[in-house]
Amino acid sequence: MIVASRPGAEGVRLVLESEEAMLLAELADQVDSVLLLGTPDDPAVGRLLPNAYPDDAEAEAEYSRYTRGGLRDGKRQAAQIVRDATRNEQGHPTIEVVLDEVEAWSWLTFLTDLRLILSERVGLGENGEPEDDDERDDYLRAAYEWAGFVQGSMLEVLDPMEA
């Protein structure tokens, strides 16, 4: 994967191997499934849509009524933007994705959501380390780390002063 700024414009240009594009599209489908079908007792859903008032059921119900649907829709839209951008219907070995700043921030939202889900599935603590010594799914851990690399690279391009 190559991540660079677009010459003369704000935004991001990504060059993805076809396998990377396919992986991102598949992961976007999985994030969307968690958002659409996940139950409130799923820890990954809890990470994506945390309770604002965990000690006050009435306030939490009110908060959820007004915000939960919009938050869920925004996260699903971000996953859809990634899915649309990574379509490789021509079967090219690489695809170039050019994102304006708004689209790039949607990708960053998706990557954050993806990493939250993967951290729950792999059993990572808040510091990114395993919570126990159990061997977890190496594929999910690799996806978690790769998504972090993509996210960090995009942030460096979007705000080089912060890097």
β-sheet strand percentage:
5-15%
* Biggest sheet details: 3 strands, antiparallel
Largest sheet: spatial strand order: 1-2-3
Distinct helical segment count: 5
The Cα radius of gyration reads: 17 Å
Mean pLDDT across the residues is: 86
Overall structural domain count: 1
* Class by SSE composition: mainly alpha
Low-confidence sequence ranges: none
- Give the ordered list of helices and strands: EEHHHEHH
- The best one-word shape is globular
Helix content: 55-70%
Strand element count: 3
- The rounded distance between the terminal residues' Cα atoms is 19 Å
Question: How do the strands and helices of this protein lay out in sequence?
Answer:
Blueprint: E1 2-4, E2 12-17, H1 18-37, H2 43-48, H3 57-85, E3 94-99, H4 101-122, H5 138-158
Antiparallel strand pairs: 1-2, 2-3
What key attributes describe this structure?
about 160 residues; 3-stranded antiparallel sheet; 3 strands; 5 helices; about 60% helix; mainly alpha; globular
Please characterize this protein's 3D structure:
With 163 residues, the protein is mainly alpha-helical. The protein has one domain (2-45, 75-158). It is built from five helices and three strands, in the order ββαααβαα. The protein has a three-stranded antiparallel beta sheet with strand order 1-2-3. β1 and β2 (12-17) form a beta hairpin. The longest helix is centred in the middle third of the chain and has 29 residues, at 57-85.
Task: Summarize this structure briefly.
The chain has helices at 18-37, 43-48, 57-85, 101-122, 138-158; strands at 2-4, 12-17, 94-99. It is mainly alpha-helical.
